[in-house]
Amino acid sequence: MSEYRGLVLHIQDGTEDGSEAWFKNPDSQASAHFLNPKSGGLRQLVDTDDKAWTEAAGNAYWISVENEGRGGDALTPSQIENCAQLLAWIHQTYGAPLQLTDDPNGRGLGWHGMGGAAWGGHYDCPGQAVLAQRGQILARAQQINNPTNVQEDDMPSAQEVAAAVWSYGLADPDTPGRAVAAGDIQAYADHRHNVLYGQLAGLSAAVKTLAGLVGQGIDTAAVVTAVEQAIAAAVVNVHVDVTGTNPTASKGN
Ligand SMILES: [Zn+2]
């Protein structure tokens, strides 16, 4: 190899076994750095120090991967993952940028047909279906290359969760804009638990009161009053400590 511009995608237009046999036959004058089966990991046929016989005038500049499949096939999820891992490795090892390219003199993730006649005139390799998947390969390679950003982009931090919880149900009118701690999540859960406990206690008391009134011939207004009093007597007042320590609950009245 005289330069490392990136990775070139191919389609075998055949099976993994058939391609391997063909590439291992010196008379074929064909090879590739890597084979990418529909399932399973990459297999390497040519050291990346050496050029493979893959894309003619591009051989000395590009690492090549032959994906198992027929022309027009899309890559399997496993093949996309393998290509992304390989692209990330090429980036980390040789400094090829994580970007798409359609230029044989460019750098990044390319494809066989972009080299035109100088690359053997394989304009349909790897085919439109695979070309449409290049964005997925690139995005995954970028994730692999920078897992810290993956976490920041895809997973909310404890701080973000706490802030969302706070804005949803734990708004504190006394200290607007207070910084939210991760411990607020537990505080909020305890708070909701205590509210529910209070509601259940009130309903339970109401049912008991109603049951006690059955058959006593009392008027509707008096029933309503009795039930309201029972609920008021049973409801739990909840105090959440907004300084971040555990909430405390105290019985009302
Ligand atoms: Zn090709």
What is this structure, in a nutshell?
With 253 residues, the protein is α/β, with parallel strands linked by helices. It has helices at 16-23, 77-94, 128-131, 134-145, 147-154, 158-169, 183-213, 220-234, and strands at residues 6-11, 34-36, 43-44, 62-67, 108-111, 236-239, 248-251. It has a five-stranded mixed β-sheet, sandwiched between helices. It has a two-stranded antiparallel ribbon with strand order 6-7.
Please provide a written account of the structure.
It is a single chain. The protein is an alpha/beta fold. It folds into two domains: 6-153, Lysozyme-like; 158-251, no CATH class. 43% of the residues lie in helices and 11% in strands. It has helices at residues 16-23, 77-94, 128-131, 134-145, 147-154, 158-169, 183-213, 220-234; strands spanning 6-11, 34-36, 43-44, 62-67, 108-111, 236-239, 248-251. The strands form two sheets. It has a five-stranded mixed beta sheet, sandwiched between helices. Strands 6-7 form a two-stranded antiparallel sheet. Helix 4 (134-145) crosses helix 5 (147-154), helix 6 (158-169) runs parallel beside helix 7 and helix 7 runs antiparallel to helix 8 (220-234). The longest helix has 31 residues, at 183-213. The chain starts with 5 loop residues before the first strand and ends with a strand. Zinc ion is lined by residues 10, 112, 122, 125. Zinc ion binds at residues 10, 112, 122, 125.
